[in-house]
Write a structure and sequence with these properties.
3 helices; mainly alpha; single chain
Length: 97
């Protein structure tokens, strides 16, 4: 009997295209912000009530959630997990400010 492919099969290793998906989602958000910044109106809607920017944010955070969950699965100790998250987020945050 053939084994069904699970979502985990696509998330192993470094060749999982998460960075590409997140990059394209970030571009959608930047593109949607260009409309009000240029004074040409609001972000065009994909469907009523959903803009490219809103969709980009959703697409960006879903894969990010998978990566955070994978981090917890790799090392399920609370202190180590929070330390890893802190070391991932704060250097860029400090550099930004």
């Amino acid at each position: 009997m053939a084994r069904l492919t699970s979502l985990d099969d696509f998330t192993t290793g470094r060749d999982n295209n998460y960075n590409l998906i997140r990059f394209l989602a970030a571009l959608a958000v930047i593109w949607s912000h260009s409309f009000p910044l240029s004074g040409s109106g609001g972000d065009p809607a994909i469907v009523p009530g959903e803009t490219f920017g809103g969709f980009g944010v959703l697409v960006f955070f879903v894969p990010s959630g998978f990566l955070v969950a994978k981090s917890w699965e790799r090392n399920p100790r609370l202190l180590a997990f929070f330390l890893a998250r802190t070391l991932r987020i704060y250097p860029a945050l400090i550099a930004f400010f």
